[in-house]
Amino acid sequence: MHVPRGASLRLRRWPVVLWLVATAAALSCARETRPQLVLVTTTSVANAGLLEQLLPRYEREHGVRFGVHAVGSGRALQMLAAGDGDVAISHAPEAETTALRQHPQWWYRKIMFNDFLLVGPPDDPAQVRAAGSLDEALRRIAASTVGFVSRADQSGTHERERALWAGVGTQPTHVLPTGQGMAVTLRIAAERGAYTLTDRGTWDHRPKALPLAVVNEGDPRLLNTYAVIVGTTDLRDAALAFARWLADGEGRQAIAAVPGFRLWPVELPRTDPAALPLPRR
Length: 281
Fold this sequence. Notes:
Elements lengths: L4 H29 L2 E7 H5 L2 H13 L2 E7 L1 H9 L5 E4 L2 H10 L4 E14 L13 H10 L4 E3 L5 H13 L6 E3 L4 H11 L2 E5 H5 L8 E4 L6 E8 L5 H12 L3 H6 L5 E2 L18
Parallel strand pairs: 1-2, 1-3, 5-6, 5-7
Antiparallel strand pairs: 3-9, 4-7, 4-8, 4-9, 4-10
Helix pairs in contact: 6-7
């Protein structure tokens, strides 16, 4: 039987096509059979680009997939307790203390820190830069008609906002609650010409044209600590392996490469939410 030349070429291509289809299917099945860890993490970690440095590397080297939910720290801890996450990254020490008391079986390590900043309009209508202390800076914002934009979302930043205002015994006259993450809150503060509190990681990765400026920083009460926490999950071994990679393994190198964060000193206490990254005096 005579087979046309073109038909012969097509017939010879079929084994190659079948091999490509089979290979793609096998790779797809391999990807789907890898364990998927659900990471619930503060929005400041997501906003600062840290996950882009951490997760692809870990997935590539350890054969683990990640599902990520970027939420406020308070919500992240709630999701961990409800079994809706395997591992969390949080920066809300008070909420972490409560969660660990309720779930003593959780695994907890501090992994990094930075600080909070008071930011506001570049022309600083409340004269916050001229304040001699953080308390005075807060009082000037509270007395101003300019206003303060609050996360109001039970996040670590919101937790610190409330602690700072309670510490000076006053509240801003004009408060705009956003219920949103840090990047959105910064944008709203810029649009309204108002003051707000931000973590340095998000601040360092903000759009540079955003019309806001730092008006107060450096007080020890503005230290901002981050922890990795593993809950009671069916994937606990895989979650612990990732958490230990962050706390003690090569993940520390990846964290150190991201502007806006500093590694937690391993010689200092790190299993207590109240622990500080600097020796106590």
